[in-house]
Specification:
The protein is α+β, with helices and mostly antiparallel strands. The protein folds into three domains: 79 residues, no CATH class; 137 residues, no CATH class; 227 residues, Phosphatidylinositol 3-kinase Catalytic Subunit, Chain A, Domain 5. Strand 2 and strand 3 form a beta hairpin. The longest helix has 23 residues. It is globular.
């Protein structure tokens, strides 16, 4: 060979590429890795600059040496068994953001307990102070808890500070949804993203930063050095998110209500008397404005009363001035394609951009969907139309050609976001990723309530049957 040194360098380079190596990690500085000594597992975010695709044999974490049973490459799809002092741990690489919460007091319903918060994802890492409490009603009965977090300036301050995650907004108030009641862990995620894809606020030109609902992203969570599993990190639905006009000079402009319980008001059946010094009325909570212990139910009361009592002629001629018909069409179809049985008398927000503009719906908490109810049990019903009294009257009177608009929008969506292919792809993308990356495996180890291939097949069949029924039903409109 004329150039033997070239061969030498090629061999040397190959040896370096295939060399078995040891990784040294200091977790006091590194936010990408966490260890659960109780469940004997390690979660390592693959965006860590120290993460390697080379074959490794040892990982030194905080001066604890973990040895791989077999020197190997690791990836999201390839876990490893490590030993430390003859104790076996499973190493799970992940591409999902890693959150670590630590508190000195037990986290309770309320008040919020102070704690530290670590976040790591791609090129974004930070440590912050939070106040954290449990959230939800039924959710608090589950062994896997959900959380409400408020970011604080210091470890002892109640002064809030805004933070930012991914493509979501800057804000101080965030939630972590435990997904315990969702067998495949994708219903809330898919349905939330679906609404954001299909609907934009009617006032988007005036408020280009307005969003039609809360956004979410998947994360993995540790609490006090214990792995808690897969969560949805989510925004809140509030005035800021929707860009509603603010309360100014003691004048109510934008309004926001949350429906908290099945009562006559939230079902638009009747409008009992209200008292503005109490922030709840007939199933609705006043979210904004609520200033100086004063709510403002006057306009909402008038609207519910109109829907409940107006004669058909008055309802037909006036309803389009009181509610955004395009939004009502969108929400009606959305609730029905998902068969969201818990989202017509509660679990929605009702909003007004400013005085003189109509009310509109914002969905919320769509966990009991796609063939399940809110506690995760199957509900294999595909042959009904969901509605409350408002939608009942819109259909009966066909005000503003509501039925024609429903039919036209359904046909449009069925060729796009509501096509069987598109909906199936959304489910399959999550299901396949979580299967291959061992997310389902570790959820099963921790909580034991996971659906599998049979549950996924059930969900696909349910959706197929639901679409067939709705196609036939709406074609007759």
């Amino acid at each position: 060979m004329k150039h033997p040194f070239i061969l030498f360098f090629i061999i040397l380079l190959m040896a370096q590429c295939t060399a078995v190596s040891q990784i040294d990690i200091d977790t006091s500085e590194n936010k990408y890795l966490a260890i659960d000594s109780e469940h004997k597992l390690i979660i390592w975010n693959i965006n860590d600059p120290q993460f390697t695709s080379r074959k490794i044999s040892k990982i030194n974490i905080d001066n604890q040496l973990f040895t791989l049973k077999k020197a190997q490459k690791i990836s999201e799809e390839k876990t490893a068994i490590l030993t430390n002092n003859d104790v076996e741990y499973t190493l799970y690489p992940t591409s999902l953001p890693l959150i670590q919460i630590n508190t000195t007091e037990a986290i309770v319903d309320e008040p919020k307990k102070m704690g530290s918060f670590k976040y790591a994802d791609k090129d974004t890492t930070f440590i912050a102070n939070i106040g954290v409490e449990l959230r939800g009603n039924l959710a608090q009965t589950y062994p896997k808890k959900s959380y409400d977090m408020e970011f604080r300036e210091t470890a002892t301050s109640e002064e809030s500070v805004d933070v930012h995650f991914g493509n979501m907004r800057n804000d101080d108030d965030w939630i972590l949804i435990g997904l315990y009641n969702q067998p495949l862990k994708f219903r809330s995620y898919i349905t939330t993203k679906l609404w954001l894809d299909i609907y934009s606020p009617a006032y988007a030109e005036e408020e280009p930063k307005a969003k039609s609902g809360a956004d979410v992203e998947y994360v993995e969570v540790f609490e006090n050095n214990q792995y808690k599993g897969l969560y949805l990190l989510g925004e809140q639905v509030d005035r800021k998110q929707l860009k509603l006009k603010s309360f100014k000079d003691n004048v109510v402009r934008g309004e926001l209500f949350s429906s908290k319980s099945y009562e006559d008001g939230t079902k638009f059946l009747a409008a009992p008397p209200f008292k503005n010094h109490i922030p709840r009325w007939s199933g609705f909570d006043m979210e904004y404005p609520y200033e100086n212990y004063e709510a403002h139910f006057d306009n909402l009361h008038d609207f519910v009363s109109f829907v409940a009592t107006a004669d058909d002629a008055s309802f037909t001629s006036e309803i389009s001035n009181k509610i955004d018909i395009a939004n009502a069409v969108e929400y009606f179809l959305y609730v029905n394609i998902l068969r969201a049985t818990d989202n017509l008398g509660k679990n929605y927000f009702f909003a007004k951009y400013e005085q003189g503009t109509p009310y509109f719906f914002v969905p919320w908490d769509t966990d009991g969907t796609l063939g399940t109810v809110m506690d995760g049990r199957r509900s294999d019903i595909t042959y009904d139309i969901l509605k409350n009294n408002l939608f009942e009257r819109l259909l009966k009177t066909n005000a503003s050609d509501f039925k024609g608009k429903v039919k036209a929008r359904w046909e449009e969506l069925r060729n796009n976001q509501y096509s069987e292919k598109e909906l199936m792809n959304r489910m399959e993308d999550v299901y396949n990723k979580f299967t291959k990356s061992h997310i389902y495996e570790r959820e099963q180890k921790l909580w034991g309530n996971l659906g599998g291939q049979e549950d996924f097949d059930y969900t696909k069949q349910w959706l197929e049957n639901r679409l067939i029924f709705l196609d036939k039903n709406f074609s007759r409109f």
